[in-house]
Amino acid sequence: MKNTSSWKQFNITVLLAILLSAILAFIFILIIDPYDSLPFSPRWKRAAMCSNQRFSYPMLSKRLEFDSVILGSSTTRLLQPKVLNERLQANFVNLSMDSASFYEQIQLFELFLKYHPSPKYVIFGIDSVWCNASPEPEKFAGRPFPDWLYHKNPWLHAFYMFDSNTFLQAIRQFGFLSGKKPARFDLDGYANFLPNDNEYDLEKAKKHLYAHQKILIETVSDQFVSNIQIKPLAYMEEMIKKLPKTTRVIFIFVPYHHYHQPSAKTCAGAVFKHCKLKFIELIKNHPNAEIIDFMIASEITRKDENYWDPLHYNLKTAKRIMDLIHLGTQAKKAGQIAEMNCYKAKPQQDLNQIFEKLNDNHDH
User: Fold this and answer.
1) pLDDT, tens digit, for every residue of 72-102?
2) What is 100-148 written as a DSSP string?
3) Strand 335-337 to strand 340-344: parallel, antiparallel, or no bridges (unpaired)?
4) 242-263 burial by CB neighbour count: b if 16+ within 10 A, else e?
5) What is the pLDDT of residues 37-47, one digit of tens each?
6) Is the distance from CB of 286 to CB of 243 less than 8 angstroms?
7) b/e burial code for range 168-199 (CB count within 10 A of at least 16 → b)
8) Where would I find the H helices in the chain?
9) How far apart are the first and last CA of the chain?
10) pLDDT per residue over 321-334, tens digit each?
11) Would you list the domain boundaries of the chain?
12) 90-121 burial string, b = 16+ CB within 10 Å, else e?
């Protein structure tokens, strides 16, 4: 009987210890507030510490020191806000996320616009995500997406934060706040995710660049072309309507390595041509919109040494692209400029005709 009583007391003690630990852990989470989303937590300058930017970037999208934003996938992550700030006289935050779906990019756009209703610049990185002609494009990229951080009342966020992952992020955030751990991302969202330059091996890179046989020619029927539908574009059209006419909107077709760009005489090539033409139609509805197209065969995309893999260029190339973005914004009219094609909403030009002329000069 005594042993039974002792065992019962032991179990109660263990349960109380677990309960107390859970309460203390939850209090720790609420105070540290790793996603900087709780209205009652201390107003510390937190950093984006979670490797999944879907959790990290909502906090950055709300910060009022920014007046401009970069949205896209990993293909625009190397656009450095500090460099673009100097070039374009703005205060950028880079909210580009690894493998970001069109839907996830929309959620960040909506959140940024909620806190910055009149942004100075909005730069969209356009790649296969936005030019996806699948009947049902994927809304998520297969990584956890915390919808509550984007849409729920901040006073309710605490109910979603009692889990082991948030506790781990709180520990990391505490490390940053106490000066013992560096931020995973800069306070403007930038991070260099590439290996060190001394690890670069051109021959290894070429194996990635030319890993698959490229289709150069295939039958592309008129019916196929007429039936192309790119559903994400309808969302983009609605997004642009929400921006004031004073906002400079820049669509950047990112510089895939030339071998990874679909050939013009293929179905994939027809889809990308259709996509680019649709974006040209889109910019006609916004007086400060423009397209800077790096997804062409150029001095950038033809050089294997500029790339780590088919989608990701090196830091030197990233700097060149930022210089060209600045150059493109200064251009007075549409046309080919250096390693890019530019299309402007103003002045009024026959952009479709210019597009056809420029793209006849590029053989992918």
Assistant:
1) 999 999 999 999 999 999 999 999 999 999 9
2) --HHHHHHHHHHHHHH-SS-SEEEEEESTTTT---SS--SS-SS---HH
3) antiparallel
4) ebeeebbbbbbbbbbbbbbbbe
5) 999 999 999 99
6) yes
7) ebbbbbbebbeeeeebebbbbbbbeebeeeee
8) 2-32, 53-61, 81-88, 102-115, 147-151, 164-177, 202-209, 222-226, 232-241, 267-283, 315-330, 351-360
9) 85
10) 999 999 999 988 88
11) 45-150+185-360
12) bbbbbbbbeebbbbbbbbbbebbbeebeebbb
Cβ neighbors of 215 (< 8 A, separation 6 or more) are 262, 263, 266, 268
Residues 6+ apart with CB under 8 A from 214: 259, 263
Output the six-digit token pair for 288: 């400060």
Three-state SS string across 177-231, please?
HCCCCCCCCCCCCCCCCCCCHHHCCHHHHHHHHCCCCCCCCCCCCHHHHHCCCCC
Q: Is the dihedral of CA 52, 56, 57, 58 positive or negative?
A: positive
Tokens of 244: 């004031």
Architecture of domain 45-150+185-360: 3-Layer(aba) Sandwich (3.40)
pTM, to two decimals: 0.92
Cβ pair 181, 172 in contact under 8 A:
yes
In single-letter form, the type of residue at position 171 comes to I
* 300 within 8 A of 294, measured Cβ to Cβ: yes
* The pLDDT value given to residue 3: 64
